Each structure stands twice: as structure tokens, then as C-alpha cells.
Amino acid sequence: MTDATDHLVLFMPSGKRGRFATDTPVLEAARQLGVHVESVCGGRGICGRCQVEVQEGVFAKHGITSSNEHISAFGGNETRYAEKRDLKAGRRLSCSAKILGDLVIDIPQDAVVNAQVVRKDSDGRVIERNPAIQMCYVEVEEPDMHKPLGDLDRLLQAVEADWGFKNVTVDAYLYGQVQQILRKGNWKVTAAIHEPLHGGPATLVALYPGLKNEAYGIACDIGSTTIAMHLSSLLSGRTLASSGASNPQIRFGEDLMSRVSYVMMNPDGREGMTKAVREALNELIDKVCAQGEVDRADILDAVFVGNPIMHHLFLGIDPTELGGAPFALAVSGAVNVKSSEIGLPLNPGARVYMLPCIAGHVGADAAAATLTEGPHRQDEMMLLVDVGTNAEIVLGNSSRTVAASSPTGPAFEGAEISCGQRAAPGAIERIRINPETLEPRYRVIGIEPWSDEPGFDEAAAKVGVTGVCGSGIIEIIAEMYLAGIITEDGVINGDLAARSPRIIGNGRTFSYLLRDGEQRLMVTQNDVRAIQLAKAALYAGIKLLMDKQGIDHVDRIGLAGAFGSFIDPKYALVLGLVPDCDLERVKAVGNAAGTGARMALLNRSHRREIEATVTRIEKIETALESKFQDHFVNAMALPNKIDAFPRLAEVVKLPERSMDTAAADGVEPGAARRRGGRRNRS
Amino acid sequence: MTDATDHLVLFMPSGKRGRFATDTPVLEAARQLGVHVESVCGGRGICGRCQVEVQEGVFAKHGITSSNEHISAFGGNETRYAEKRDLKAGRRLSCSAKILGDLVIDIPQDAVVNAQVVRKDSDGRVIERNPAIQMCYVEVEEPDMHKPLGDLDRLLQAVEADWGFKNVTVDAYLYGQVQQILRKGNWKVTAAIHEPLHGGPATLVALYPGLKNEAYGIACDIGSTTIAMHLSSLLSGRTLASSGASNPQIRFGEDLMSRVSYVMMNPDGREGMTKAVREALNELIDKVCAQGEVDRADILDAVFVGNPIMHHLFLGIDPTELGGAPFALAVSGAVNVKSSEIGLPLNPGARVYMLPCIAGHVGADAAAATLTEGPHRQDEMMLLVDVGTNAEIVLGNSSRTVAASSPTGPAFEGAEISCGQRAAPGAIERIRINPETLEPRYRVIGIEPWSDEPGFDEAAAKVGVTGVCGSGIIEIIAEMYLAGIITEDGVINGDLAARSPRIIGNGRTFSYLLRDGEQRLMVTQNDVRAIQLAKAALYAGIKLLMDKQGIDHVDRIGLAGAFGSFIDPKYALVLGLVPDCDLERVKAVGNAAGTGARMALLNRSHRREIEATVTRIEKIETALESKFQDHFVNAMALPNKIDAFPRLAEVVKLPERSMDTAAADGVEPGAARRRGGRRNRS
């Protein structure tokens, strides 16, 4: 027998470790180290939530020889549990299993207790669980004439004794229900306790008779165009359903600024838009509940993110102030309300949390993306861009983070492009141009082969080829540049009309014919200019942040949002949308905002983390920075008039740079400044 | 010049004192000593709430020579304030006036700032103010693109900087209003901040543009028969209006038990009764607001007390469990909800506080009466009795307090008495019987002269003499005993029929004819028995508490409630309703429950005090005490079969005690026990 306090226990995946006396329950050891192991029943061996696995072997690096012989024998509560429920071989209940020697303990992330099918996990990310709402099973003393404490008061006594929550407050709706629930559960109940983030008493938000071994939450990104929602188990962390819908506010205006105008010009405009988005959210909740086979009343927590205008309209706040300088947010800090207070019928005690907004144009969605990608958690300098519409830009590392928004306008969504369209079947999304022949080949959404492969024409006849989507527009401009069709100043070279019938003159300028036929798709000089203006605005914003950081290159780039997911990093660099970077370190990060919402849903520490981070992020107002104009003009060139792209040049043969640095035709001084006036577009 | 830290300052009426440096503002000195001085503007000299007065003279006891020369000269903010508003001669603004020497400072309780007429103060009691809701005037930084903190966040920053409230949470309804209010007030606003009693962040519950120099609260005692409400200024403490109404639940049942039965037998019974009482409260709120010329939306806080069944029905809790053993309260602790959550439209952020209940039959009203009379604050042993219906009894001093209820039944309200009626015009309320002639003289509600004085008959012809009210019944039984008409065992002595025509035989027993004529008013043997049963139950309950305390007499007696206000302490003692006591120390304490509610409204420390006190009060369940039966049988006698009343005997000539201690005729063993079954009557 080793010394009583000599057992080294390492918990994975957290890597936290400590020494514990013989017979310490594994759950207790985890608690002492701050390792979150779920437990609803408080160690009674009935909920099965606290499953762990012993990793056997010699872990030389940690100096641990871990063995199933170093843990108490399977039995007691575990046997009883395994008889009634499914307990995988090798799994132990950490409330019952006791430490007898050195151990490496794995906390599996898939301890599925109920029979629910996990249909889809929104991404592969494992989020350590520590939800804001804790399910606490308690056994309450029966009423006693000698001790006339109320039923609720005895319940709260039990919650304090077993779970340590003191002075617990109570949601008003429960006063009228507590006696019936206690009697229905025969004095055994599960209390859902919400613990506030910044101190103070916790709150009893829901109460269930008997053992309630599940609780759910939703995480939702309210985009101006699309709403994405995930339904997750607060106990296992698993995502049970994910769904999306169009934002019905689109009928009030496609872009954000037109929605703000609608509010300003219609007396009931704000109410109408708030109602529309909440109705859409309600329908989405129905949808994910049906998919996940979850009762809506079992949803106890919800996290929402969105850009500032979506954030305000969702909360019922008039966004008019966001429509003009100084772009004052009504509230920038994290918002905590009850779902019932904002017209979302979930459990009557359900809570809603919204991440903080970073600035008037850098919203809770950008905060959520920051939480997901964590520039503030790493030493490398990371650039995080949500290439929306109004681009949200975060740049930083563990020592300093800065953020800004940039008025890219709607060109990237195809709105100012002659052949532009939404990403939908029939839209060209990939393009290559042969630099010799200037002939294009392309790929169309909904059609498997490329345009020069067998079967394309038949499929195209069926699906139609109707336009070019955002990622396609990036590629075609970049490919035109790489093929020499446009100069670094963005001028379509009319001399090439002699070489190819695809170069077509229209008055003073030229166009490139992408596809002929019933629906002619052309890239005009104006289209190129629109993309130049948009990318120059984005780049100038990024450049201002780089100036603040005092750096001339970034280590990593994350491209967030739907648009970011589809553009090819190479073309983003060729176009000079983002600064030079090792191509392998430029990544689409998907719906990082939605993932951040899910992190905040499943772990309250992430709420604390992002709230603290946002207060430290320095906000740059691009409109107030005198250098914005210079950066903007330089960024009109492809990829940039003065910034070099050496890392890109290692993998892509860039055209020779011309010595002529004159302002490009058609870009008048002041174009950048004027864009400031439409910073809220889309 | 004296030493810089050498000025002794004494604040009255609190008596707190300390030494302060020259130039310390008086308000600051008060804050440091924990002396509550109201201030809405935070020391800017504009609200006028922080008025004080210098007491001039030599205060030898305190070693202070106080003089107006020991305070800075009147001027600056004070002059500006006095030009615009009324500032009484001698009054100083403590935020502006600075300490220059030793001072005795009086904090007046009548610093009326607005022109409101104070119509009525519910009693003479001065309650030190420290309300749960504080009005905090702040000046908020305007939005700045360089520091994109939200409007609300900057407001909360100002509240923290000027008032010290950290991590303030926000009532959800304010999110949509904050921007408009800030702009309307030109960035000067008054925040109403609610500070929780048991730690944790305070909450912003209301927000007003500019300086909001008033806030109101209501204090209400919901009796089973009558509802009493006071409207008070949270800032000055003054009561602006008081009003009362019948409890409309009477239509569901006169006494409490019949209301519980109604709930049990009617599916919507609970909803109906909750609705009825809330409607009545709403009407009363309208009434006190009209009287006090106060806008209902300016009511920010409300305190309610009531017996357990009223408490539960008001909160929307089914009281069925209170209808039978073990008489389980749904909640016994103090209740904190928003007024909007219980259907009382006040300010949308208004809070509601209910005092704790002591036990299943000793409610928040008894707790409030305890708070008012404070047996727990004194060394003397005080008995506090609400001689209702179900009597609530508290007995204690600063070292120990015990409480119980006793099933007195409705006799004291006249319900089981042949000539009984409510206290209303036409009811006999005072009676004297001439021991020689056995002739009565009496006084009737609504008639000024006594029955043997000129003018009585004319008035009686108009008003009518229709019955005897509760206090009259006590007096007539006591006077009959003193006159020898009834024996100490409660038997009407038939031998006296020979001496007086007022003694009339009916079969085996006799009656006393109180008034002849159109409406004959008799006191029958059954009437005497009913009062004996009621008073014996009350006395037995008191006696159990005295046993617990190990005492044979009490130092003081407080008779609470409407009934307690009208009975003559002497007759209560003659009858043996309460134990022997110095007559001068038996006092009616009025609506002590309503006063307690007002104390909790105006001073949050009183909430803390009563919550702590109630947890320490020992609850005695009379039905479980074996000695209850013995005490009850002994208490059937007048004043008591075994307990002496020596202090009473000093002022009242009591009849000789008979040696015969046999059980009185008609009181079968078990009568007391059976009464236990109707402990919830009325």
C-alpha cells in the first residue's frame, strides 16, 4: 500500500492533475481540481452523468502508471445503474469509483445517457462543459409541524446542503407550483439553478419532480440574411439539431441600413422588425426541437449573437442611433434576460444571454467569432475577418487585440455586379482563365462537372447558368488579373480585344465575356471597380489595425461567415482582400459566430472570457483615422500598390508590377471618404 | 485652528458619533458613520434631500459644544438651491456644509422637498429611512466614436463611479428605453437602483430623464376581513395617504377555512380568489394615489403582509396544504418578486417584498407586528397577541422569542354569540353593570351619550341598537362576572332571578337581558360558553409559550389588530384572555402589522432584521403539546382556575374565588382537542 496521500491523478483532456488520498471518489478529485464532470444526482449514482474511463498504461511523460487496478472495483451504485441503463464497457461512475493508486482518467465527451440520437454535430469542436444552468437533484425533508419551514424553504435548504448554493432566489412563477411538484416527486426533485456570472445569489429557474436527467439550450447567430441555430444538450454538450432560415426582416430591406431607414420612417417599424425576427426564431426553435426530439419546455438556456443592428432589433431596441455618427449602441455589454421577457416561449424560467458587442459596427457576432478563434489566447498575430457586407475585423494576439469595421458595401454579395447573384443553383462559384487563350472554365453550383468536362452542357441546360456568386466574383477578378486581362490598377486591357473575342469594347471601357448564349454573363469595367472599392475598404481597415499593432504582416488569417467559407484563400490574397500571409495559414473558419454562441451556451467560463476580452479590445473607428484614405487608395491596386505579397508570390506567379503608380482611371479622390457614409450598408 | 482630525460630530436621532477632519462635508461624515441621509443628486446640491440642522448649545453629556460657527458658512450650492426652492431657516444641505468644529447635527424627518401635502400620517412613528430602492442622479458621458461603449454601459459606469454600485443588472424593459431617456435628459438622468438584501449585484429598475426627486412605495396589510394600505414617500418617509377596503374574498367565505374549502371544491377557486384580492388592491392603489396626488407609475416598491392564507392567495399559491396537518406553507421565507409578475401594475420596474411567515398559522402579519413592537429588541418579556380569529401569539425578549397560533374560533367577532354583530353603528361597544341592581348602562357605536344619559333614546331611535360587537362582548361577560351574575365557572346564577327581572330562565339555564324592546338583546348561557371556549383556547396557547420560556408572568402585553384596538385591557384581564400583568403595561398596539410593513418599506435593514428574527423564533404547534388540554380546561374558569391575577386585583375588586374547582357544567373533556380541528376558522 502506498502512502495515503500519494496517488497522482491526471484528468484528460484538460491535463489537470493532483495528488489524492486513497478512497477519494474520482468525482470529488475532479471537483477539487476544477475539472468539470457533470452530475445531476449529486453523487447518488442514479443519473449516470459522471462517467469516466481509466486509461491503462505507462505514461512516462507524466510519470504515471495507470491501471484499472488503481481504482475501486466496479460495484454498488455502478452495478445498480448498469442494470437499469446502458453503461459502456470500461466506463465508471466517478461518484462511486474511488482512487486507489495513480491514474490517468479520461472524461469522455459522449456520455449519452438517454436514447437520443445525435443527428448532427455542428462542427468537430469539443467544448468543455460548465453550463450556466445546473441540474441539481435533491431529496427534500417532508413538512413537519415541529419545524414549520415552508416547502420551498426546505427545498432551498437541501440545494444549499447538497450543492452549496446559498441565498438562492426563486423565479416568481414557481411559487404557485412548488408544492405540487414536490408532492408529485415524493419529495425528490431536480432543481435547475442559474448561477450569475458576476457574483450574487443563484436563482431557481425550474423545478421537476424526480430525477430530471436532461436540459437543453439553443445557440443562435442572427445574421442579417440568414439565421443559424443549434440545439444542444447542456449536460452532454452534444448538438442534437442544427437548422437555418432566412431572416424575414429581408422584406423590410436587404441591407442593414435600409432596415434602419425603415425603422426611422415607419412608426411601427421597429416593432414590426422585432416581431418578424422573433417569429422566425420561434419557428426555428420548433424545427430544431422536432429534429432533436426535444420538448421546447426543456430548453432552459439560450445564447444569441448578431451584428449590432440585429442584436438591437432582437432585443426590441430602436437601432436608429446606429444609423449615424457617433453610432451609439444602446447597450454594448453582455445582456442577460429571461426568454419570457423577450417573447420567446421556452421553459418559463429559461434564460437568454447575448454576448457583448465590440463597437457600433462590430457586434456580438464578431465577439463570438473572437471567442471561437481565440486570437487573444495565442501568441501568433491573428487576423479574423467576417467578410460580410459591413466587414468586421479583429486583429490581435494574447498581448493586444484591436478591432474595427470597414464599409465594404454589398459588392461581395453580388449586389453591384452586373452578373452578380446569390450563392444558389445556377451561380458560377469557381473560375479558371487560361492565360494563353483567355478562355474560361468554371464550375456552377448544382452542376457536378466543370464547364469543359463531359456532361456539363446537359446539366447546364437543366439547371441554367444564371450569374456569378460572391466567391466566383473574387475568383474571376483575380484570374483576370493573373491572366493579364486587367492591369494592377484594375483596367481591362482593351489591347487584348485583338487576341480574344471575349474582350469586348463598350464605349471608353472594355468587358470580359464569361459566358455567351441565352444569358450573357459579362464582367464589365464597372464590376471590376466595384470589387476594387469593396476590397480596398476592407484592406484599408485591416491596415489601420496593423498600424495600431505596429506590424507589417500577420501570422494567421481566419475568414469567417458564409462568404469566408466559400472563397479560396489564394484568390483572396491575389486580389489583395487581406494582407500577405502563408497560404496554408489562411483558413475559412465557418460560422465562427455560431460556434462562439455554442461555447457560451455550454460553458459559463467562456462568457466571462469574452466579456473580459471585449473590454480589453481596442476599437478603431475607421472613419476617424486620417490614414484610412491613403490605405484605401493604395489598396485599389491589385493586390496592392505599395504592400508586397512575398509569401503569395512563392506559390502563385503574380504578374510583373508596373512602374506606373498613377491613380487608376475612374477612382476619384474622396471615393473612400464617401463610402464612410454608407458604412451600414447590408 | 484645532487639530485637523479633532472635530467630534454627533448625529441625532441615531446618536452615532465620530471624529472628522476640517472641511469634511457633513453628508460624507454621516455616510462614514452609517447614518442614513437621503441624497438623490449625489452631493451636487440640487435635490435638497440631504437637509440637516445644527443644534446649538453645550451638550455636557456628550462633551460637545455645538455652534453654527463650527460649520462652513451658508453659500454656494445652498444659496442656489434656496433661491429656487423652499429651504427653512436653519436648514443646511449636508452635501455642501463642511465640518469646522464640534457639532451636534439633527437629521429632520420632515425634509419635504416637493409641495405635496401630507394628509395623514398613519401613526406617530418615525422610521429611519434606508429604502431598498435608491434614487441616483448621474451625469452620463456622451457617446464617443473613440470609446464605443454603449449608452447603457456608460450610464452604469457613472452609477458605479458616483454611487458605488458594481456590476449592476438591468430590468429587461429598460433596454428599449435607455437611449431615449438619456437624450431626453440631455445625458442627466436619475437611476432607481434596487439593492438586494443578501448580496449580489444591484439592479437598475427605473430610469428618469433629469433629476427625479421623488419615489413612492406602498405598505399593505391584507387581512381576511379588511385590507389596509399606506402610500409613503421613499425619500422623506412621510405617509401621504392611507386607506382601507373590505377584502372581497369575503364573498367566497367569511372565515379562512371556508375560503380554503372553496379553493378545494372549485377548479378555478384559487384563481378567482387571487384575482379578487389583486383587483381590490389595485383599486386601493388608485385610491391612495388619488389621495396623495401621486402617479401610480412613480411607485417603485411595495411591501405586503398577511396571514398565511392571504399571503398564499395573494401570490397565486393554492392554500390547500394549509387546510390540514402538517399545515405546510409553500414558502415561509421572505418573498421578492416584481410587481408585474403578480399582476399589480405600478412602475414597470417596481418590486414587491413580503415579510416571512413565522409558521403555518402565524403569518407575515405576525412577523410585521413583531417587527413593529420588537419583543426581540427588549429585555422585558413581551406578549404580543393578534386577537383575531385564529389568534397569532408571539412571546419573547432579546434572548429568546417563541410563537404559536391558537384556534380561538369566531366568537370574538360575534359569530357564535346570539346578540353578536360586527363593529358598526348600532352595536353596543361598552357596558357597565351595577352590581347592586344588576342594571346595565352601555354605549353604542354612532351614539354619543351612554344609555343612561340624556339624548340617548332619541339617538337610539334613529341609529337603532342592533347587537353587541366584539369588544362589547368581552366587557359584558367580564362585567357579569364582576357583578356576580356569572360564577367563576361561567354559570349564570339562576338564584339571581329573584333579585332582578333581567335574569331569565330558559329550561335548564339562564340568560341576562341586556336590552328589552323591539330588538331584545340577551346574553345566554351558550354565549358565555362560546366566549369561555374562545378565551380558553387563546390563554392555553399563551400559557404554552410561557411554559417554553419558563416564566409565570409577562412584563408587557401588546394587543394587535382591530379587535385588540378596541377591547379595554382591564376586561381582557378580568376575563382571563391574557395572563396577569400590570394594567398600565397592557396596550392596544393598533395595526402593528401595517406599521411593520411600512417599516420594511422604508428601511431595508428592517427586512434583514425581521428575516433574521423569524429564523430564530421558536414555533410551537399547540395541537402537538400535551399540556394544551390542561391549560385549556383551567382557562375555562374566570379569570383562571389556577393562575392568580394579583396585579389585576390591585386595581379591580375581583369576586371571591370559590373552593369548588369541579369542571364547569357543559364543558366536556375533549372540547379543547376538538377545537384543534377547526384551527383555521376565520
From TrEMBL, chains A, B:
Q: Name one GO molecular function term.
A: iron-sulfur cluster binding
Which PROSITE patterns does the UniProt entry name for this protein? Answer: 2FE2S_FER_2 (PS51085)
Region Disordered, as annotated, extends over 659-682
Gene3D superfamilies per the UniProt record, alphabetical: 3.10.20.30, 3.10.20.880, Domain of unknown function (DUF4445)
Domain 2Fe-2S ferredoxin-type, residue spans = 7-111
Sorted alphabetically, which Pfam families does this protein's record hold?
Answer: Fer2 (PF00111), RACo_C_ter (PF14574), RACo_linker (PF17650), Raco_middle (PF17651)
Q: Where is the composition biased (Basic residues)?
A: 672-682
Record CDD domains: fer2
Full protein name: Putative metal-binding protein
Q: Which organism is it from?
A: Hoeflea phototrophica (strain DSM 17068 / NCIMB 14078 / DFL-43)
Name the lineage. Bacteria, Pseudomonadati, Pseudomonadota, Alphaproteobacteria, Hyphomicrobiales
